[in-house]
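The record is passed on directly below:
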Amino acid sequence: MRLRVVPSPPLMGTRFGLAQRQRLLQGGFVAAPPGPEPRRDPRAPSSEPWTPWSVPTGPLNLPTAVRSAGTVAAPLLAGFSFTLAGLVLSLIPDGVVRWPDLALLLFVVAGFFLIACIQCAFWAERWNVTPDELTMWWPDADQNEGVRQYLYMKQAFHARRYDKWVLYVKVSYNYGIVAFLLAVAVLLIPPGPFEKMAGLRVIAISTSLVALIAELVWVATSGRRAAKEQEHAPRASSE
């Protein structure tokens, strides 16, 4: 039987059973049936050095990118989306937009997706914890094997929750961008025959559609790009 540290069930309102907590603080182990091996990114090089900590899947600076998306990019784009939705409402009586209701719907959808991105980024940040922070909160981990094993387990638990919310951030952000770009293209289409459309208006619409297609291609190929980046990642020496 393989031994690993596991959290015991709560007892009388405490986070851990008293007996298990005492054994943990004394450096003891709590036996558990064999469980899954520590989390590992399947795209990571097989020769990557082993670490007891749960390493982030993908780029190591992913938390900074997620924080930037949730606190800077998504709020700005959500504000633009709802502002343009109000603009569409003001233009409906003038009849200068070919499909005002469709543009209004797309701007509102984009705004709500981007708000969802902000919320998901907030929830992801709650689970973002580094080994340095854990060892700062439990300074005796270096001298206590039981506490150290507990911190490995706790950090892996947080990392799994963080990865889940980061996925929601990516999905909501990408959908919000796609809806926003499509709404801009619809907003630029004037009423009347297409053959009488001004040349500069055609260029503006074409530019919006190119940006939309580029975003769709970028989203669709994100997994392939990540795999290629891992192929060029440094590998540990076998010596």
User: Anything to note?
Assistant: Confidence is low (pLDDT under 50) at residues 1-45. The chain is about 60% helix and 0% strand.
